[in-house]
Amino acid sequence: MASLITCPHCGVRPKEEFTIRGDASLVRPAPTASDEAWHDYVYVRANPRGRTLEHWQHVAGCRRFLVVERDTFTHEVHSVTDGAAFATENGR
Amino acid sequence: MTAYRLTAGGLVDRSRSLSFSFDGRPLRGFAGDTLASALLANDQLLVGRSFKYHRPRGIVSASASEPNALVTIGSGARSDPNTKATVAELYAGLTARSQNRWPSLGFDIGAMSDLFSPFLGAGFYYKTFMWPAQFWEKLYEPLIRRAAGLGRAVLERDPEIYEKSWAHCDLLVVGGGPTGLMAALTAARAGLRVILADEDFRLGGSLLSETQAINGAPAYVFADRVVAELQALPNVTLLPRTTVFGWYDDNVFGAVERVQKHAAEPLAKLPAERVWRIVARRALLATGAEERPLVFGGNDRPGVMMAGALRTYANRYGVAAGRSVAIFTNGSAGYQAARDLHAKGIAIAAIVDSRAAAEDAAPEGTRVIRSASVVDTRGRRRVSGLVVERSGFEELVACDAVGMSGGWSPVIHLACQRGAKPVWSDQLSAFVAPDVGGGLRIAGSAGGIYTLAGCISDGAAKASAITSDLGFKPAQDVLPQTGEEADPSFTALWYVPGAKAKAFVDFQNDVHAKDLGLALREGFGHVEHAKRYTTSGMATDQGKLSNINAVGILAGMRGVSPADVGVTTFRPFYTPVSFGALAGTARDKHAQPVRKSPLHEWARKHGATFVEAGQWYRSAWFPRAGEKTWRESVDREVLNVRANVGICDVSTLGKIELFGPDAAEFLNRLYCNALLKLPVGKARYGLMLREDGFVYDDGTASRLAEEHFLVTTTTAMAGGVMSHMEYCSQVLWPELKVRFCSVSDQWAQIAIAGPKARGVLQQLVEDDISDAAFPFLAAGTVTLKGGLKARLFRISFSGELAFELAVPAGFGVAVADQLMDVGRAFDICAYGVEALNVLRLEKGLPTHAEFDGRVTPDDAGLGRMVSAHKTDFIGKHLSSRYGLTAADRMQLVGLKSVDREKDIRAGAHLLREGMKPSSLNDQGWVSSACFSPVLGHHIALAFLKSGRERYGERIVVWDKLRDQEVIAEVCDPVFVDPENARMKA
Predict the structure, then answer these.
(1) Eight-class DSSP state of B136
(2) Largest CB tally within 10 Å, which of B37, B245, B551, B847?
(3) Chain B residues with CB inside 8 Å of A82's CB?
(4) pLDDT tens sequence across B919-961
(5) Local structure of B895: helix, strand or coil
(6) Probe site for chain A from B250, B276, B732, B737 (most A CB atoms < 10 A)
(7) Which residues make Cβ contacts (< 8 Å) with residue B497, sequence separation at least 6?
């Protein structure tokens, strides 16, 4: 896990200022979607070795949800994006 | 008297004599001594008993790798167990105690275990103490723990303070020896922000023990000059007494600075230790190399030390470990030690060299025994001779100290803490650091360069490269000049054959060579298995001296290269770090801060008993004179609210204020019930689900204006709900135009409940609050007499006519005082959260005792709240899934104790009468319970299978914790005023 996260709003901050919510690649299904789709969304999580997208909330800073793209193996952080911007860009 | 202080020399300040004590014996040393050098100067060679066999053990090293000389320093609450005497700085009044001995260091009963050592081989307790099983916990383990061990932690509260700090730099240099000093100087002169950290109290590292001249002056003078120059530079931070213990992601290093562990009189304003988190753009590992012990018979006899340590004690501290010293070596370092000791007038009994031939120069007149091995030692509590074997012939060499030198291992721990494995070098016969990228470079002896000149030039070169790399211009300095040096090579010798006594590999854990053989024979030959099986390389020193020999021995026995055996995993911490330092200031109330309501002082004034609820201190009840138990107070408060009126502090509820054209739509999607068409000036009970369909939190939502809402959360979930709302608005529905913030701390909120509530409140409020003007669930802004704007909500958590009045936090106490004043005529009382709980229980209102994460709205009797018309809300889809709508789910019911003497407590389970308690027969559980002063008996809320169909049934409340069974009658959860007539009055 990274020691430092570069928040797009607050700059380089220690990881203790953030809380991790989990997988940011999930897309909330439509209310009419199948039970399977909802089951997968709520309960099924991948545990990837390598690149992963996660929601980190900067609770001790701007309180924004950020999408942190990092490598679970090398711990390298590839990008940090504002969660709303990420969601909008990805057409949600 | 064998070990002694030399008459002259060393870097100690002979004008400053310091008194200290060891095991109660008063001794003296000098400023600049370590505890170990001072003990040696006093001929106190024996410092401890070994872990398992209780063998007498002496000082081995002069460094942080020390396995034996672990002592407890200080007394009472200030005791520090397992402190290495070799790095503990001497101060006036220091008290040190030896460990793991009883009754005394000289005579230790545990030493008998050495006689039984054939039965105490590796893994002995796995095999020996198997049967009978119950003996393990009660007999064997306590016995073993008492017999085998290190120092004891004290139970008193630590009176020291600690702190943590961040630091940022261009270059962190770890290690202040020749390499580190040159690197720091080179980078600092070029203008980099440099931090130089070294574990020693004096910077200089090996230069302080060196007899070589640099630029024509003694090496320590060179070190002092460099340190003085660095100290004068504003871009340099020197951190002596600081151990860099860990390397973490993003080139962040952890270090612990012993700020005043060495102070005779610590200052109250300074911490004992400080943990640094150092963010370094680049770092240079200049940690040097560790001399290896030799594994020969009887090598743990006190007086057998590292050859380099003998050098350090003589050159730096002016202390001789013996009058006649034998050297056992496989390389040039042993000869260097012999030359230095000889120059100090210490006799060299012999140099035993495992090699057949060597270029190394022995001091004049010294006997060198080549192709020879030491197979045993003589002496009891200190060595008196070596048994030297050569070509099948044995010879006794008399001596009173032994210097062993088995070659060098680069200190590469930090470089290997992030997953990269060390790399075996045949050329160096050592594991060297892997390439870990540009962030951390290795220099000097840590990189296998063992000459002084080599270290100096490598430190400068690596620092120059980093300087250019970071875009600075390196200064073109002339390197300091050093003299001729011997070839520092050695011939690896993992195990000295022919041992006639235990040949120890790991002194601290009493692991000898045969233990490793046993591990291999029993299938634990993998380096990680062997470590666990034999305990080699465990405990406080983590095998700093022993690991490499253990690997070499395993490799030899397996017939492979050490490269194939590999090493165990390196992890932080490099050396042990105290819990106090790691906790820093985050302890007691700094770790769990106190949150006080804005009405705290008002409650205190009225004699409240407070209860901790998370970080909050909430007023639990308000005892009055003559009330002997809390129940008397709570019963009175409840009855008074039902008969007259009471006020209660509800400021701890979470309050979130929302604005925006989509605020209504946003809330409509958050709550399972409909909020879109909530009229302005109205409040509504709201239920939030999780996406999995279970209840998350409840509260009220009030519409203060078309695009302005205020929602409340429960006290416990205030933070969680805020974060949940942020997630929903930022991630799920960023298109909704809504902004919100927590206003929990901005408002003091007071519940006024009871049939006389309106009467009291009307005295304070300008506006008309009659039922017609301000009906049940009205919400809005009112003006208090005197002009203060307040928010008023007609909501009830008691079933009585009730209001919640919110005023800006700073006015809370004044308004509460006013209410009490005008309420006197109405027989008002203050009530606490206990009475609040009884009131809501009597009314059958659920809280988080009921909403425990397994409960659906329908389970709690709130199924009708879930909107069937809304297209979407959090939890909509999965709340209707199979399993969450089954008819036999546990449903909220009331329970009345049939036996009036017996109470019911939350957590008890429900059984049909006559059924045995088992999970199969389990019918449900009690979620909350209390004595109802209104009804005069115990009541409870419970979840019962198909509960709503079972009103009137008798059920057993089975309370295994108290071994009690109570018969209760199942009933509707609303015990008081089911018609809501009082609430709507």
Answers:
(1) I
(2) B37
(3) 730
(4) 999 999 999 999 999 999 999 999 999 999 999 999 999 999 9
(5) strand
(6) B250
(7) B373
Question: Locate tokens 């962190």: which residue?
Answer: B172
- For residue A32, what is the nearest residue in chain B, using CA coordinates? B877
- Indicate whether B106 pLDDT > 80: no
Give the integer Cα–Cα distance in Å for B684 and B686: 6
- Alpha carbon dihedral B809, B811, B814, B820, in 10-degree steps, equals -60
Contact B800, B982 (CB under 8 A): yes
Distance (Å, rounded) from C-alpha B276 to C-alpha B252?
10
Indicate yes or no: CB of B250 within 8 angstroms of CB of A4.
Answer: yes
Q: What is the pLDDT of residue B120?
A: 66
Is the pLDDT score of B716 beyond 90?
yes
**Alpha-carbon torsion (B762, B767, B772, B774), positive or negative:** negative
How is residue B853 written in tokens? 């994460």
**Domain-by-domain residue ranges, chain A?**
4-89
Give ipTM to 2 decimals. 0.98
Indicate the helix (H) or strand (E) that contains B878: helix B876-879
B830-885 confidence digits (pLDDT tens): 999 999 999 999 999 999 999 999 999 999 999 999 999 999 999 999 999 989 98
Task: Report whether the peptide linkage leading into residue B103 is cis, meaning its omega lies within 30 degrees of zero.
Answer: yes
CATH number given to A4-89: 3.30.2270.10
Per-residue pLDDT tens digits for A46-65: 999 999 999 999 999 999 99
Q: How buried is residue B905: exposed, middle or buried, by Cβ count under 10 Å (0-12/13-18/19+)?
A: middle
Mutating which of B731, B869, B874, B878 best tests the A interface, going by the most A Cβ atoms within 10 A?
Answer: B731
CA dihedral B689, B692, B693, B694 (to 10 degrees): -70
